[in-house]
Amino acid sequence: MRTITGSRKLSVGLSLRDKLMLTVIYLILIATAVVVLYPVIWVILGSLNPGDTISSTTYLPEKLTFSHYINLFVEKDYLLWYKNTLFIAVMNMIIATILVVTAAYAFSRFRFPGRKQGLMVMLVLQMFPSFMGMIAIYILLLQMNLLDNHWGLILVYAGGSIPFGAWLVKGYFDGLPRSLEEAAKIDGASHTAIFFRIMIPLSVPMLTFIAVSNFIGPWMDFIFARLVLRSNDNKTLAIGLFEMVTGRANNEFTTFAAGAVLVAIPITILFLFLQKYIIEGLKAGANKG
Amino acid sequence: MGSPMSIIPAAREQRSVKTTISVTLSILFMGLGQIYNRQIAKGLLLALVELYVLIFWSKPVMNGLWGLITLGEQMQIRQRGRIIEQGDHSIFLMVEGIIYLLALLVMICFYIFNIGDAYKVRKGIEAGIPAHDAKQSIKHAWEQGYAYFLLIPAITFTLFLTILPLLFGILIAFTNYSGPNYLPPKHLVDWVGFKTFSNLFNLKAWSHTFYGVVSWTLLWAVLATVSTYFTGLFYALIINVKAVRFKRFWRTIYILPWAIPAFVTILIFRNFFNAQFGPLNEYLSLLGISAIPWLSDPFWAKVSLVFVNTWLGFPFWLALMSGVLTSIDKDMYEAAEVDGASPWQRFRTITFPLVLFATAPLLIMSFAGNLNNFNIIYLFTEGGPVNIDYSYAGSTDILISWIFKLTLQQNQFNTASVISILIFIIIAIFSIWNFRQTRAFKEEDMIQ
């Protein structure tokens, strides 16, 4: 038996083979970092480059310019899109979270006729492709005069988030110990008090996940935004940016790049901060409690 | 009231008669049973509800059901291009019909509840529990109905924005709702049964596209899942190697593709792969490689899709698996090393099974997600390049993006709806299978 384990533990020295291996690993890591960072850097540089098209984007530009950023606000309705998206995202976050949490509390802590069926229905609903109901939603919003209206879109988003979210939060609630509630009940606390004083504070991580995913959703979605919002004044960022680079001329790349950078920065920072919750939430989502 | 022990048979019989009366009364008209049970206020309220529904709702409900069954009978009439008679709009009739049908179902549930209530209260009276007075009833309803009260907003939203549209979507599959000949308001739509289903499988024009798109969808889902999963695993493993330093630094960099909004990066990549102006071909030409038609050749378009998807998707697995790897007991490896297991053997018998076990449900869900990964296909290639052999689909279209085109661009609503149902069946099989592997329903009532 060789005693290599001992020497490794003390990390006195690495064998040649290990050194070679480590070098290869570092090379791979660096190469991958380049691939990962490349599009990011490319777009940031693009946004600072003079000129309008992709081909004018060079890596060592003679001068950097913020004119595209200024353009976004002067020539484009970027600020308006940003405001629209922010409004939709915040409202969706609030409404969806309330809907999801109340439903989850009912399903987790009460036993009532129809409960099992309700849970089953919500499970089945998650399996349908989301825009199967698109035409009906369109007609419904048309009838309710909510087409080309932010509230129409908010309703669609919030409604769509219930089945998945409620299952997720219900699973989380199920895992919370019941002793606290029972103690509170003996002290005469009402259902409402238990909900706000015990359930909510105990489930902050899961609520964060639900709130964040509903906040981020509207920034990414095209399909429903395209379906519901028609006029230029109501556009969201995703649509506005999409139209900038998919037009035939494709001569607004640098302005698009500036717009993309401005969207990506806050969302990325938000994500990096809340990464832990997001991973936990997704794990729970796959396990369903 | 005496104790149940002292009830003589005759009295018991009389009591069961009273129960029957109270139930029969509430079947005849809502609230009568309650009034019979001396719950006057509750009974009157219920009776008022039924009266209101009968007076104001019976005609609309009948009309709604008529619309749902016939989908309209009056064609739009035009003379010299001008509309003289508006005619029935089949699709509006259908949506309205579903709404009234749902309303009717809610009403029926309420009715059944009313009957059940009359029965229960009567039983209670027989057993010696006096019926609640109005005040107690309200309190009782609040206590017992708290769950329903909590659920009302969620149910309303789900009913109108999810269930109703889905029912509509399913029903569309059994109609001929499609362009150019069956589009309201100009034309009526009719029920056609399973004809659209059989057309999809049997008509050459449809079936050829269908099988082509299905096989690419499945291939795509497998490639997209496997490539991201193993890329993530690979980087999780090499960052986890003991001697590698700055682990946090690497993980933070590699998490970026996941953190940056995907639609932004997909659009960036779309420009990056642009065959004419994109930088990728520029670099290749510097290396002496002639331009590759990244997005206009079916094969290369698929290759670049898988690449972009791997770029976007591996960080998720990396983050997840890093967590799993750090939680594996180090003693296991040391024991294996003492036994003389090679690094590969250690990976195969310890690391991989544990990682797979921890990530299996997510792996399956990610496969199902990739089957329906609309965003990347639509934003990156828009389903293109054009495939002249296909009906309304491009070479990289997966089922879901094909549906999108059929619906929003080609007005082939019935076929789109049939395909949605098929996707649902595929996803349902995966989800149910996944579900049975996990504990969700098994332990459902343990906490009670």
From TrEMBL, chain A:
Assigned keywords, A-Z: Cell membrane, Membrane, Transmembrane, Transmembrane helix, Transport
Residues annotated as domain ABC transmembrane type-1: 82-274
Subcellular location: Cell membrane
Domain of life: Bacteria
Residue intervals passing through the bilayer: 20-45, 86-107, 119-141, 153-173, 194-216, 253-274
Transport among keywords: yes
Annotated PROSITE patterns: ABC_TM1
A Pfam family recorded for this sequence: BPD_transp_1
Gene3D superfamilies: MetI-like
Bilayer topology term: Multi-pass membrane protein
Family listed: Belongs to the binding-protein-dependent transport system permease family.
UniProt name for this protein: Sugar ABC transporter permease
Organism of origin: Paenibacillus oenotherae
Phylogenetic placement of the source organism: Bacteria, Bacillati, Bacillota, Bacilli, Bacillales
